[in-house]
Every structure is written in structure tokens, then in C-alpha cells.
């Protein structure tokens, strides 16, 4: 397995995972989105998901336990988890009907929208408007579908909750509980469909990158301008999304 990882493209995925978790530790967002969007340039999405999702459980599980007191249980149980769980199940069931080319195009469009929106917000920084419950739940359901397809419901869920009145600490803790819960369900689904067992050696091989990424992220958080770093990451994601959406 180490010999396989030492050859492209799995070596590149390791570099993308390190970048993803460094960014997550520094800015608080995007471990799977970054690794999957860059990795999809060189590997099939369905081959990476059984690797990236269990890796994410390790970090989110620790953080979910550590921040459990800050999570908004009412928002989780009444607003977020029911719609996200239903959407994730729908996305997971839809996944086999889509070929890799269609998956890459859809994922690329999602990343283009997400990166362009975040770059625009970094310049304009508009105040979020209050949203109705139906609007929020509709976008939350859509976020669940993208999570079932790509384990990347974050962009749409953050958009869905943009008008919610959650302070920074509760918002972060609530999202972490969502990712831990849904990624645990996806990992169980990968176990049932047989895709998890072949991926476990790669998961084990990439595990040491997580603490390295956390340490690098902490160092960069203290020494590098976070706003500039985020803009640079979003610019890379925008280019990757364009390449995935229009591969030819």
C-alpha cells in the first residue's frame, strides 16, 4: 500500500489531504471539499469518498465531543438533521445512476458556485438577510443531497443557514455535529455496500497527515493573514471547479 501511495495519483491526493486539513485547522472550513475538488482532477470521485469520509470522522468526532456543549440541539433535531439526513439518503441512492463524468461536472458546478460566492463575500461582505423556515429547509435538503453525492454538503448548508441567528461558537459546533453524524452514516453505508474495506489501508496510511495538518494550521493561523489565505484557497478551488465542470 505504501508503494502504491508513493506513485501518482494517490501521492497527489495525500498532498491535497494535507492542504485540506491545514486549511480546516487554520480557517475552520473545507476538509472534504478541498481534498475532493482537487483530488477529482486525478482520481474518480467514487474511489475517494470511502477514504475521505472516514478520515473526516476522526477529526469531527474529536471536535464534536469537545464542543458538544455549544451545539444548538433544537436547530439540529428540528431543522438541520431531518432534512440533511433525508437529502443524504437521496444523494447516496442517486449516486450509482450517475457516471463519473456527470459526477465531476455536477461537483465542479457546485465548487464554482461556492468559490465564486466566497470570493465575492470576501470583497463585499454583505450582511445575511433573515430567511423563512421553508426556504431554509429547502436548501438544507439540497445540501443533504450534495452530501450524499459528494460528502460535501457544507457549501449549501452554510448558505441555507446564512440567515439563522446562531452565534459563531454555536454555528461552528452545530455544523461539526452535523458532519460527524452524516459522515458516520455514510461510512456505515460504505461498509454495507462493500466499498469501505478496500479503502481502509489508504485511510490508515493517510491518518498521520491529520495531526500534521492541524499543527501546520495552528502555526499558519498565528503567522499568516487568514483572509488572504482564504482568498487564495478559494481561487484554487474556483480553478479546480472550472476544470471539473468543463473537462474538455
Please tally the helical runs, counting DSSP H or I stretches of 4 or more residues: 12
- Record field, number of beta strands: 0
On the 0 to 100 scale, the average pLDDT is: 84
Largest sheet: none
Number of domains: 1
The SSE order reads HHHHHHHHHHHH
- Strand residue content: under 5%
User: Structural class per helix/strand content?
Assistant: mainly alpha
The Rg value, from CA coordinates, equals 17 Å
What would your notes on this structure say?
The protein is mainly α. It has one domain. The chain is 79% helix and 0% strand. The protein contains twelve helices and no strands. It has helices at 2-5, 10-27, 31-39, 45-66, 73-94, 100-124, 133-150, 154-160, 168-193, 196-206, 209-223, 226-245. Helix 4 crosses helix 9 and helix 4 packs across helix 10 (196-206). The longest helix has 26 residues, at 168-193. The protein is globular and about 45 Å long.
Amino acid at each position: 500500500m505504501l508503494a502504491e501511495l508513493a506513485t501518482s495519483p494517490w501521492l497527489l491526493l495525500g498532498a491535497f489531504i494535507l492542504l485540506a486539513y491545514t486549511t480546516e485547522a487554520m480557517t475552520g472550513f473545507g476538509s472534504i471539499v478541498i481534498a475532493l475538488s482537487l483530488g477529482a482532477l486525478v482520481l474518480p470521485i467514487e474511489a475517494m469518498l470511502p477514504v475521505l469520509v472516514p478520515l473526516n470522522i476522526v477529526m469531527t468526532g474529536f471536535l464534536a465531543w469537545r464542543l458538544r456543549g455549544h451545539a444548538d440541539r433544537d436547530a439540529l433535531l428540528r431543522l438541520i438533521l431531518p432534512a440533511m439526513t433525508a437529502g443524504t439518503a437521496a444523494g447516496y441512492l442517486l449516486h450509482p445512476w450517475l457516471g463519473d463524468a456527470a459526477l465531476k461536472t455536477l461537483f465542479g458546478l457546485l465548487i464554482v458556485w461556492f468559490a465564486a460566492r466566497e470570493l465575492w463575500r470576501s470583497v463585499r461582505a454583505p450582511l445575511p438577510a433573515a430567511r423563512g423556515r421553508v426556504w431554509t429547509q429547502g436548501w438544507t435538503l439540497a445540501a443533504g443531497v450534495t452530501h450524499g453525492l459528494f460528502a460535501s454538503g457544507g457549501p449549501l448548508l452554510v448558505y441555507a443557514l446564512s440567515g439563522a441567528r446562531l452565534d459563531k461558537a454555536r454555528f461552528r459546533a452545530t455544523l461539526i455535529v452535523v458532519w460527524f453524524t452524516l459522515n458516520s452514516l455514510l461510512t456505515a453505508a460504505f461498509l454495507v455496500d462493500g466499498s469501505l474495506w478496500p479503502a481502509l489501508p489508504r485511510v490508515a496510511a493517510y491518518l498521520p497527515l491529520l495531526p500534521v495538518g492541524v499543527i501546520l494550521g495552528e502555526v499558519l493561523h498565528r503567522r499568516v493573514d487568514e483572509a488572504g489565505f482564504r482568498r487564495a484557497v478559494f481561487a484554487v478551488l474556483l480553478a479546480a471547479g472550472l476544470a471539473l465542470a468543463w473537462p474538455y
